[in-house]
Amino acid sequence: MSWFYACDLFGVAVFAITGALMAGRKSMDLFGVLVIAIVTSLGGGTLRDVILSHYPVSWIRNDLYILVATLAALGTVLWVRFTRPINERGLLIADAFGLAVFTVVGTQVALEQQVPISAAVIMGVMTGVAGGVMRDIICNEIPLIFHKEIYATACIAGALIYIVLQQFKWSDDLASVMAMLAVLSIRLAAIRWHLELPRFHLLDREPKDSDQ
Amino acid sequence: MSWFYACDLFGVAVFAITGALMAGRKSMDLFGVLVIAIVTSLGGGTLRDVILSHYPVSWIRNDLYILVATLAALGTVLWVRFTRPINERGLLIADAFGLAVFTVVGTQVALEQQVPISAAVIMGVMTGVAGGVMRDIICNEIPLIFHKEIYATACIAGALIYIVLQQFKWSDDLASVMAMLAVLSIRLAAIRWHLELPRFHLLDREPKDSDQ
Amino acid sequence: MSWFYACDLFGVAVFAITGALMAGRKSMDLFGVLVIAIVTSLGGGTLRDVILSHYPVSWIRNDLYILVATLAALGTVLWVRFTRPINERGLLIADAFGLAVFTVVGTQVALEQQVPISAAVIMGVMTGVAGGVMRDIICNEIPLIFHKEIYATACIAGALIYIVLQQFKWSDDLASVMAMLAVLSIRLAAIRWHLELPRFHLLDREPKDSDQ
């Protein structure tokens, strides 16, 4: 088992935990917790694979992914039941780490399919953030990543760094580590100093036909 | 026409009716009613086929599916217009029956594609419930199946029973009937005695970074 | 570069602008604006290509699409920043034009894949409206096209006209123009005289089991 595969499974577990916690905030039943956890952790990669026609999708090729997501979700429910508080700070850092891994995985898979660079960046970002967007849509929230501290921008930077280092023929391991470090450090800096992208405010008006 | 194909078409009609009723509750126009009916009845199977790369998807291979969903939606609008009350009890039982058929269809299709057992169960559940989840998302509701009486759990049981009986070399017809009976009886028992899965409650706090 | 390809790019730009404006109404950050713009302009075609197994999807085959959507989104933000008012009337007409192009593109792609007529019409409508539906779902709104002046109905008419003219062996260019004119004129007439499809109203009751 390579170090990178271990990171990937760790990312799945972390994203499943954030999904389970959101489901708990909506008072879902155990099945709902499981679905939201699986969608959050595996939805981004599934969307990427379907759009790239990269079959079979990850969790069908390897059933360890479903197992890890399921165990992480059940573990979260048990942990919270026995009233151990959630370490928000630790979870934030773990989430940034998962984001870094997923971004690199997505960019790698896209480059293997010989897509243009713009599409490879989009696939990296999509793998990192789409699971969380699906979680928020199912839970009837406007996705947080469009409002919050720099999140997806960290993915864009990581995907670009990975692509550039690949062009310079760096080894895959080294390019992955550098790209992950970029995502991690941008994201942790954004959390630490509450960095945000500029917002685009438009006065709320009556929805008109142009809204279609 | 096999008995199972007839059941499948019946399931499409029932799910289209539940979609049309929800669209009516949101005062959608006729086009909206049609779209919600089609998405509810065919969305789960389409998602399954796309994730499994099982092309062409059902309603492109066979245009009877679209026809049945369309007629069921229009029939629902006419029925309600002429103020005949909706038989809630009958609709509930029909819905449980449709759920049973869709679950077995989804599990069958997945097994034909040689996927692992965990993925086959997910495909069975997805075929049964994803159309209803899409309906609720488009109508801006938190999907009911994550809050309600045992619903998806019945699908999980049905998919597992089908897979086990297949392993024991039961005939496809017999395995299908047993699995459908399992889904139906669990679901009807849940309705009758208001059985629910335990909920996972988390106190609502300010959304923090970890929500991403 | 054919005239039709130019129309297609124009449609992408217009849809990206409507997406960016909606994101601004939700006070999203720059990344959110970009995502909503791309999803609105390319989401319908991507969904169509995935369901038809028509790979690679448009924006992976040709990275000009992403570039146009991105520039249109950024241009919208700059335009609004410098407080130039938005020409609602012009945008409405441009949007109707984009809808006409997308409908014809979607119907063409579907017919090339030899799908039944019902599926070709659905693909035409889907290409025209699904991007806007995704935009509304992500922004947590009930999709406007299910409530508003005749919109999708114009797509249905356009797709049918294209299919019929194809059967009569009209040239592709001529069939495209006639179908686009149909969409445009129906849509502009609907805006001008506020035409709506009849609504389907169902009294709001307690959600019951049948809502599943």
UniProtKB/TrEMBL annotation, chains A, B, C:
Belongs to the UPF0126 family. It is a multi-pass membrane protein. The chain crosses the membrane at residues 6-23, 30-52, 64-80, 92-111, 117-138, 150-168, 174-195. It comes from Pseudomonas neustonica. Its main location: membrane. This is Trimeric intracellular cation channel family protein. Keywords: Cell membrane, Membrane, Transmembrane, Transmembrane helix. Residues 6-79, 93-166 form the Glycine transporter domain. It is found in: Cell membrane. It comes from the Bacteria.
